[in-house]
Amino acid sequence: MSDFEHVFDAPPEGAAADWTIPQDWASYSEVEHRTWDTLYARQMKILPGRAADVFLKGLTALDLNTGGIPDFAVMNPKLQALTGWTVVCVPGLVPDDVFFDHLANRRFPSGQFIRKPDQLDYLQEPDIFHDVFGHVPMLSDPDFADYMEAYGKGGQRAASLGVLQNLARLYWYTVEFGLMQDADGLRIYGAGIVSSATESVFSLEDPSPNRLGFDLERVMRTLYRIDDFQQVYFVIDSIEQLKRDTLQDFGPIYGRLKGAPDIAIDAILPTDAVFTRGTQAYAARGGRF
Ligand code: PHE
Ligand code: FE
């Protein structure tokens, strides 16, 4: 889900200046806890053999399957000991500058609410299942943890340069919808995929989408869609590669991007490393599952 859109300009009633709210774990209902359990169990039938080792390792280390929605008071000390990150609750999507400030300080903002039982498969706004199950395991990896902090700092800079749209695409195609070349083949690590039963399968196995080698500048020029399965996924070699590529000063890249046209969502360029040349059949028939 996009973390780059927001509805309010000021923190809503009851939220702090940095938009955080208490998790108030005791307030979750029995139904809400069972929703977590259902989603967790469903993903665990799908993810072994599909999710990257680094994701599965983080999931195990954080012990997010103790029955019901994780209590941040229990989860945060474990995460903090691993990488110095913590998770804070917010009412929903927050403004870009607030989001970046949290990341730059190793705080990941998570929605407090969980989806309703009739929304198990799809919802527009990120809930606690997407945010915690999807994002937090990766934050237990030291390299990914560094990447996310650097991203927060990079976001503050990109905003001041007017190139946020380009940087948002990097987030989209890595943090949310990234694929990785693991020892045993292609694996998923993007939070938008690992938290979705249908896209976990589609992203790896459907003949429709393109799967292309990750290329930083190319990715920052590529359009994306927020309303359906992706038409292109980008494959990194490793988290270290991602960290290395993004460590460089983006100044010269931003300079070049200013004059460069956007790249269509289904384009394959002569310079692309092609893992899968997709049929685009799913998108051509109108998509939406
Ligand atoms: N290196 C980027 C810059 O100079 C910052 C950044 C790091 C952005 C990691 C995204 C991810 O702006
Ligand atoms: Fe997300």
The outline comes out as: globular
Strand order within the widest beta sheet:
4-3-6-5-7
Order of helices and strands: HHHEHEHHHEEHHEHEHHEH
Please summarize the sheet with the most strands. Answer: 5 strands, mixed
> Under the CATH scheme, which architecture would be assigned?
Orthogonal Bundle
Number of domains: 1
The third-level CATH topology is: Phenylalanine Hydroxylase
Number of strands: 7
The CATH class, by name, is Mainly Alpha
Bound chemical compounds: phenylalanine, fe (iii) ion
Structural class: alpha/beta
Q: How many H/I helices?
A: 13
Pfam family, one: Biopterin_H
Enzyme class: oxidoreductase
Catalytic activity: (6R)-L-erythro-5,6,7,8-tetrahydrobiopterin + L-phenylalanine + O2 = (4aS,6R)-4a-hydroxy-L-erythro-5,6,7,8-tetrahydrobiopterin + L-tyrosine
EC number: 1.14.16.1
Plain-language structure description:
The protein is about 45% helix and about 10% strand. The strands form two sheets. Strands 4-3-6-5-7 form a five-stranded mixed sheet. Strands 1-2 form a two-stranded parallel sheet. The chain starts with about 30 loop residues before the first helix and ends in a 5-residue tail after the last helix. The relative contact order is 0.13. It has 13 helices and seven strands. The protein has helices at about 30-45, 55-60, 70-85, 95-105, 130-140, 140-160, 165-175, 190-195, 195-205, 215-220, 240-245, 250-260, 280-285; strands spanning about 85-90, 105-110, 180, 185-190, 210-215, 230-235, 275. The chain has a single domain, classed as Orthogonal Bundle (Phenylalanine Hydroxylase). With about 290 residues, it is α/β, with parallel strands linked by helices. The protein is globular, with a radius of gyration of 18 Å. The site of phenylalanine has 11 residues, from helix 6 and helix 11.
